[in-house]
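Design job #97: recover the sequence.
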């Protein structure tokens, strides 16, 4: 593009550039500025108030020597594996179900996607009531005559993490369904006719042919779900407050507690920097595959 064409492009899009300035300013100052400021504070000895000295990696050493932080990372790994696996399988099955051109398709699609429209706070409160031994499933079953029925996962340190996973899957599987359904609707009908003529079993078509074709949708789904896992805070606070003890502690809650309750800015920013690095590691392959690599062809 020559200089004349560039000037013409700028004149034609001047209003668009002016309109985007407030958002660009917000991104640069409010988002990126605070992000770099937080990273900077993670290398200081800040406690209740920010300091601007330099202590190297001492905050990170203290962080990974804290058993509560290590427990939160272990919990996050368990949540990540089970949440991603169950959400993807359930969402894929729901998308296949709706893709069969069933009656009342719009109704079922809305029902499956509705939980994703709810906030994590609402989701957490709903499932907290369901799992509460005094109010939910256990109470309902005992009122029906099963006096010895016990379902106390939410107060059981060994099982509480799975209650959080169930609530998160209930909310997130609808997103997977919507994204994969969009991919399924883009597959040519001739492909299905050809597989039927060849006598290929339906399950084999989905596993060997359809899933590879849905790769862009799958990558998008994994990235979105992974970021939501790393940011998971609301549902944990609403359901368990990280308890019993630290059995359902997650990194986001650890950061918020140290920042606002324990007045330990150094540890909080160090932990948030670790999570920021994790998010960047998740996003980088997605950006490279879908933008940089394609443009380089």
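Job complete. Output follows.
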């Amino acid at each position: 593009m020559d200089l004349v064409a560039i000037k013409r492009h700028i004149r034609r899009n001047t209003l668009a550039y002016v309109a985007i300035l407030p958002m660009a300013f917000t991104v640069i100052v409010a988002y990126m500025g605070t992000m770099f400021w937080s990273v900077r504070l993670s290398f200081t000895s800040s406690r209740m108030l920010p300091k601007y000295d330099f202590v190297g990696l001492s905050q990170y050493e203290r962080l990974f020597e804290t058993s509560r932080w290590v427990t939160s990372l272990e919990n996050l790994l368990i949540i990540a594996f089970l949440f991603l696996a169950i959400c993807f399988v359930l969402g894929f099955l729901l998308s296949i179900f709706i893709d069969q051109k069933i009656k009342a398709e719009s109704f079922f699609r809305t029902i499956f996607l509705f939980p994703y429209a709810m906030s994590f706070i609402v989701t957490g409160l709903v499932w907290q009531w369901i799992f509460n031994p005094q109010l939910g499933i256990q109470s309902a079953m005992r009122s029906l005559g099963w006096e010895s029925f016990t379902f106390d996962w939410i107060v059981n340190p060994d099982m509480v993490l799975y209650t959080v996973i169930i609530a998160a899957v209930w909310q997130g599987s609808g997103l997977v369904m919507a994204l994969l359904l969009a991919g399924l609707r883009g597959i040519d009908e001739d492909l299905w006719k050809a597989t039927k003529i060849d006598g290929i079993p339906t399950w084999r078509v989905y596993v060997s042919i359809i899933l590879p074709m849905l790769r862009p949708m799958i990558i998008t789904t994994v990235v979105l779900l992974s970021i939501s896992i790393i940011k998971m805070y609301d549902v944990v606070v609403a359901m368990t407050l990280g308890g019993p003890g630290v059995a359902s502690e997650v990194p986001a809650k650890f950061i918020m507690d140290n920042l606002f309750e324990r007045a330990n800015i150094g540890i909080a920013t160090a932990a948030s920097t670790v999570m920021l690095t994790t998010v960047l590691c998740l996003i980088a392959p997605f950006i490279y595959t879908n933008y940089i690599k394609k443009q380089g062809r």
